[in-house]
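Re: weekly structure request thread

Next one in the queue (211 aa):
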Amino acid sequence: MLEQLRQHRAARRLRAGDGRPLQRFRWWQLPGRALFYLRLDDAYAVDVRHWQNQSSGNVTANLYRNGRQVAASKLPAAFPVRGGTIHVAMSGSGMKRCHFVADDGSERQLSPDLASAEGRRARLAQNHPMTSRMIGVVSVAMLVVGVALLVLQVAEAISQIPPVADSVGTFTSPIGLPIWLNIALGLGAAVGSIERSLRLRYHWLLDAVGT
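Done, posted below.
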């Protein structure tokens, strides 16, 4: 039932393309554009200009077939293509999904343009797998630290509410950090979340801290 509702909403967001040609990725578009490719019977491309205001719901994904725009949709998007559907979604820190889901239920991630930030990160993983893994571990570590600190701070704040304090007592976080270190850890979590978005990795709890 829930999946049918999601499909219905995605279908309502879908609109026909105007046939415009796909523009080549330029280096200055690195901070705000994602471009992915899929080869089936036809050559598909998904173009997302995410410098638009993500919180307003105005970020649009454009679907191209053989170099021409055939459809567009606000995110999250679901583009029906031959043999399945292309799903596109973003988090507050970047792309979190650009996958082809076949009719048999199997799925695969689309290939990023090599000039894009996602493509450069994928090339790093291919050419320097050990370095890539280390970067990934550091990203997760920064997010785990961010989650742990957030949980402690929230627990301490909630315990100060009079009804809660009267019933269970107050809680004081065992970790007291100076403001500059809190800010630095927050920035680290944000960087970790952005790094994971370049690999289209997303966890509802960990990456939410980074945004």
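The two ends are 30 Å apart (CA to CA). The first helix runs from residue 2 to 13.
Next request, please.
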